[in-house]
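Lay summary

Proteins are chains of building blocks that fold into shapes. Our project writes down both the chain and a compact code for its shape. Here are two examples, one after the other.
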Amino acid sequence: MALFDAYARSYDAWFTTLRGQVVWEVERKLLCDFLRPRPGEEILDAGCGTGLLTRELAARGVNVTGIDISPAMLAVAREKTREFPNVVLACADITALPLPSCAFDGVVCFTALEFVSRPGEALREMWRVLKPGGRMVLGVLNALSPWAWARAGRGVFAHAHFYSYREMRALIKETLGRVPLRWAGAVYFPPCCPEFCLRYTGLFELLGSAFARPFSAVLVFRIDKTG
């Protein structure tokens, strides 16, 4: 049984809470700002899980292929995206994608590499299916964030490998060589932040991105395939 099968039906519950909604809005905005999806493009959502980002991209008119190793998570994603004819979902391992080379305008992988035992192979596969001129966006949970300390050893996160900025940058360089890269952080308020403080999320993000970028809950990288 895939690791996430046991969590599939309860996975989205946190995103219905006020805190979860605020976190997802911040993450979603940064991911889409980096990916810049355009209607009609072919985008791969690698490790799509329950389809939160898949649905967001489909609603923007993108043709989305969602890949995940968990059949149970994909079942939830199918329910969530059944109104969108521009979504194709398939069960597969992102370290061995059953997809042709140079097939996608963009590839996004959000909080999936943490659970992959061979992340370098996953990066190579995602790079392989990306068209020249395309862009790959990677989002990972930050090892240096208070959110990682709060999550460590709990539930599905007991199986996760959290990444620091330096470690992630080294993995990208080791796997893909010297490639055009930019990065940013998302979610700077602490997990213990009282709910009334969530109204100041914009201020947290502004100050965090200016003074504490390596310590955000999530690190997001964009890599451009120039040739």
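And here is the second example, written the same way.
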Amino acid sequence: MGGPTVEQRRADIASEQGGDSFVGRRYHVEKTRFWGYVRRPRQSWDKAKLVMIKEDKKRQPDRLSENGPDGQRYGFDNNYEYRLKGYFTGSDSYDPNSNQFLPTFMLTGYEVVNRNPGWLFRPDDRYDPYRITLYPR
């Protein structure tokens, strides 16, 4: 997946602005409905949670047709990094296609931080669009 050195990633995370926002990384796997990983600023990615997004207040960034043209369909933003506004609802949602109960995050706003941040958990991460391959460890 490419990206920075481990040392650079640690420095980038340490310099993140705090506050009431979260950091999110879109993780799209075909046919699943989870959104991606969410963590607090300045926390390492191994503390991130794979989440379902609740869109009652704001639609997720890639809420597009799954059959649209390249770059204009659901999941186009795989691996984008976002600053997210919102909160964990305290409940879990079921993703039937991955057979997981995942924390629910109520999205209230977002902005793109990086369209190509590289690896997520480790420099040797491998992305497969058809199966879950990225886990905190």
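What can we say about the second shape? The two ends are 17 Å apart (CA to CA).
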